[in-house]
Design a protein that fits this description.
Layout lengths: L7 E5 L4 H12 L3 E6 L3 H11 L7 E4 L5 H14 L5 E4 L14 H26 L6 E6 L12 H21 L3 E8 L11 H10 L9 H13 L7 E4 L7
Parallel strand pairs: 1-2, 1-4, 2-3, 4-5, 5-6, 6-7
Helix pairs in contact: 3-4, 4-5
Length: 247
């Protein structure tokens, strides 16, 4: 809250299964949270209620990160509540299959604008606050190991995530030394319950992972804790994938 010197985090995409767990974990670590949600008001309210059990001065706002005006409005709302920004976690994402040869312009715009354009303008808005602060702050993008894989049915998504990883390095160079900018690239963490044969698919995916298990929020938070405490790491993409990229 204004006037108080407590750690503050802005997070986009905090209402999904992984995102909400990360947001709650950050609140448990002492961050006042300001997060955005897009199309799940019930999930957003539940996330906020859980966060406020640990950090009462936390808030949320609706935001479509594919629209620059919506991002700017979200940061205007943020400034109503806070005067500092310690951590910007860029996590909003859109993910679904788009086989090459069948991709529509609407699908392309949604996937690229949400995953790449949204990341850029969110980082730009956050940087406009962070680079003028008298302390070192941090930006962390949540990308995907798919940025390094060739998935024939997810081309717009994987290309957007690869672009965001490059963007992470650009911002790291531009904002140094005041702001440290890194990316966490998760491997396989959750199985979409709408997919058929979910249990069989889960076992199949585990066979592709050298460590033999899917990831958890704890795995992400271990890396995020490191990045928020370390003062000499910037411009890095850290894969959290159980060794998946080794196969």
């Amino acid at each position: 809250m204004k006037g108080e010197q407590r750690k503050v985090c802005v997070m986009t995409g905090a209402t999904g299964r992984l995102g909400s767990s990360i947001a709650l974990s950050l609140a448990q670590r002492g961050y006042d949270m300001f997060f955005t949600w897009h199309s799940s008001p019930e999930a957003a309210q539940e996330t906020l209620e859980n966060i406020r059990k640990y950090r009462l001065d936390s808030f949320m706002t609706q935001c479509d990160v594919s629209k620059v005006a919506s991002i700017k409005n979200a940061f205007s709302e943020f400034r109503r509540h806070f005067e500092r920004l310690d951590l910007l976690l860029v996590s909003a994402s859109s993910f679904y299959a788009t086989p090459v040869g069948q991709v529509t312009e609407k699908e392309w715009d949604n996937l690229v604008d949400t995953n790449f354009k949204g990341a850029f303008f969110t980082m730009q808005e956050g940087a406009s606050i962070m680079q003028h602060q008298p302390f070192v702050s941090r930006i962390v993008t949540i990308t995907d190991i798919a940025a390094e894989l060739v998935w024939k049915n997810f081309a717009p998504y994987t290309a957007a995530k690869a672009a965001t990883q490059h963007l992470t390095k650009v911002f790291a160079r531009v904002l140094a030394p005041r702001v440290l900018v890194n990316s966490i690239a998760p491997g396989t963490f959750t199985i979409n319950p709408e997919w058929n044969n979910g249990q069989d698919l889960q076992e199949e995916l585990k066979e592709r992972i050298p460590l033999g298990t899917l990831g958890s929020t704890t795995d992400i938070m271990g890396v995020l804790d490191f990045l928020t405490e370390n003062t000499y790491v910037t411009g890095q993409i850290i894969n959290v994938d159980g060794g998946r990229l080794l196969c």
